[in-house]
Amino acid sequence: MSSRGGAGGERPPEAGSRGGVWGGRPPEAGTDRGRSAHTITLLTRPGCHLCDEARAVIERVAADFGVSWQERDITGSAEDLRAYSDMIPVTLIDGVQHDFWRVSERRLRAALSAPRRTQPPARP
Question: What is the mean pLDDT of residues 112-117?
């Protein structure tokens, strides 16, 4: 897979994922550049037309904020299939479920503007 994005600040994505750290425009006005950046995970599965729409929104917003993102196919994990099969695509921010079925660009931007949690919540 190839990395997408603007010049500068770019590094290869994690193995088995799409996305990466994006160059381009700085974070939106009013955001604190000094805080830890969020990470977005898009949960998908093959043949998901809503996943294509979600991916386009995430690519655009991640580029604007300069945050990393990855894509994970739920068919590679029995646990992911059990938890998310009826909700694909699912967006996680810092490991916490944020949206499913459709990605709201407005909600995603608002969530990325909030301070990052220091620890993800414990999984049940």
Answer: 79
